[in-house]
Amino acid sequence: MSVPVSDEPSPEQPRRRRGLQTLRNQAAAVPRAWLPGAVGYACLLIGLVDIASAVFPKLRHTKMHTVAGQLPGGTTSLAAVGTLMIGLLLVLLAHALRRRKRRAWRAVCVLLPVGAALHIVRWHQIGPAVVSLVVLAVMLVHRREFYAKADPRTRWRALVNLIVMGAVSVLLGLMIVSVRTRYEVGHPGLYERLEHVAYGLFGFEGPIRYNNERMSDLVAYLLGGLGLLTAFTTAYLALRPGKPKPELTPQDEEKVRGLLERHGERDSLGYFALRRDKSVLFSPTGKAAISYRVVSGVMLASGDPVGDVEAWPGAIKVFMAEAREHAWVPAVMGCSEVGGEVWTREAGLDALELGDEAIVDTAAFSLSGRAMRNVRQMVKRIERNGYSCKVRRVRDLTLDEKYRIADAAARWRGTDTERGFSMALGRFGDPLDDDCVVVTAHKAPEEGETGDDLKAVLHFVPWGPDGISLELMRRDRAADPGLNELLIVAALQAVPDLGVRRVSLNFAMFRSALARGERIGAGPVLRAWRGLLVFLSRWFQIESLYKFNAKFQPEWEPRFLVFPSTRDLPRIGFAAMQAEAFITLGMPRFGRKRQREGLMPAPAAGEVTEAA
To answer: pTM (2 decimals)?
Structure first.
């Protein structure tokens, strides 16, 4: 559905401009980019010192220890527990503080003076308290440095916190019990110590007995404090108001589809902005949009902005303002050369050539000629083995066929997680995606065999009015080699009848390095770089994808990674691998029903039968 976009700003745009101006003023008022990192590491060091002073008794024996013995028995014990809990919280908050998070700043501003007071109550040397107060003063003076909003919330953090904090509590508890052997009655072993820690974390008395009542109380308080802190932080993360995952709302999807109808031919990756696990930001005029997802503190966009090129700078400014507001690292995967130039000019970012996209002109494609000899022979051999292909628009499929294809693609995936972010749609058969093209390979079961005749599938998304872009390639692993070549050739020969003249195939990472590195006269650095890429191809399809695409004699279009600085590249790379699902940090998915999610929802009872 085409959605008209007005050139006039909406009533909300003056408020948006004021917000952007506030962020610009805020950024201009933050001249010390190094300060949040320094404060974060200082809080980390203070937290570690607090933990060590609470765990190891010798660190508390100062010249004032005799005076401390005159205080009520529970005073110093409770102070030790408080110091331990504050130390753990400071360690947990240090990373968020380095990322300028406002909530972390508020929490640390409370923890530091309380920690300093506990040091004084316990009659330690005055040094740790003074350091804490000095760091607090720096944070208060430079409070403008800490302006970032919280990241999107997820309940998974509660589970991760429970596992990590639980393990840390057990290790610290074992250390607390093990460094006080001279106060123990008898000689308990490792099992008894672990049992005592486990009981103590839940507030119960364990099997170990101490000859000093104050030491017994101190150990009990420390273990109980660890258990209480683990329970409190986990409950806070689990019960705090949830914020939805990144998603494309129906209203935003309608606007993006309208932009694609008018400007979709500019970028072969434009249709992937319609992934429903992405968020989207629009330019002030609404003529351009950028889809993104936040992964591990990286605001990750893919492809070029969707819409009018003249409106790209406005969308980029909104994107960068959002990144500054949350202290996210902005990055763009797979943008074109034009897109890279606009990003680097408007946002002050840097660009790195990431690889090349293989694009085939269907009018010029032919199997004749020496260069296509291997492909021609492979296709003929597969056809003689009884395979045939069908090339159709998704709208021409029955509902039963859609479910069969989605289910087969999930079975052939081989992983629990649907991979893809920058060049994958993540669904199949949606009524709004009727213009997509699907290519299926079939082979009738031989005599005496049973099973589905579907053996492989390709799925292409629209690329403007006369192009398609490959987003899914799956095949039965038991099928004959060369089936993918048959599917590609069948698609390239049939899609001109559907009005398609451009076909975007797979993306080949670092293609130019692989191609130049194998030429005569390549230097040692280039050869070493190619050797590393070939080695990494054992786990990532780098060389194999390049060689597969090269069989069809495509035109190569470079794609770029846009990033703020070189030091951010490892973090961006890790986030990109998470987004593409090469690295998964969540819980594994079990069962075929879970695997089919993301392609097509399971049919309702009787739905397929009625469609058939």
So the answer is: 0.72
Closest CA to 174 of 199, 137, 139: 199
pLDDT at residue number 295 = 86
What's the CA gap between 380 and 423, in Å, rounded?
Answer: 30
Between the alpha carbon of residue 18 and those of residues 15, 101, 126, 200, 385, the distances in Å are 5, 22, 47, 54, 67
pLDDT of residue 463: 94
Q: Which residues have CB under 8 Å from 528's CB, separation 6+? A: none
378: tokens are 């492979």
Determine the Cα–Cα distance for residues 228 and 129; give it in Å rounded to an integer: 25
pLDDT (0 to 100) of residue 362: 93
pLDDT for 579 equals 84
**Long-range contacts of 113-122, Cβ-Cβ distance < 8 Å, separation of 24 or more:** 114/82, 114/86, 115/46, 115/50, 115/82, 115/83, 115/86, 115/87, 115/90, 118/79, 118/82, 118/83, 118/86, 119/83, 121/75, 121/76, 121/79, 122/60, 122/68, 122/76, 122/79, 122/80, 122/83
Amino acid letter at 490? A
Residues 77-131 have pLDDT tens digits of 677 778 888 888 898 888 888 888 888 898 899 999 988 888 777 655 577 788 8
Contacts of 193 (CB under 8 A, 6+ apart): 174, 177, 178, 208
Contact 418, 581 (CB under 8 A): yes
Q: Determine the angle formed by the axes of helices 35-55 and 156-178, rounding to 10 degrees.
A: 40
Q: Which residues of the chain have pLDDT under 50?
A: 1-16, 20, 22-30, 60-74, 244, 587-598, 604-606, 608-612
Place of tokens 């009542």: 213
Determine the length of the chain: 612
Token couple for 8: 């006039």
**Looking only at Cα atoms, what is the longest distance across the chain?**
97
What is the residue whose two structure tokens read 């995936």? 413
Report which DSSP code applies to 435. T
Asked if 313 and 167 count as a contact pair (C-beta separation under 8 A), the reply is: no
CB 276: neighbour CB atoms within 10 A? 17
- The answer to whether 466 touches 501, Cβ cutoff 8 Å, is yes
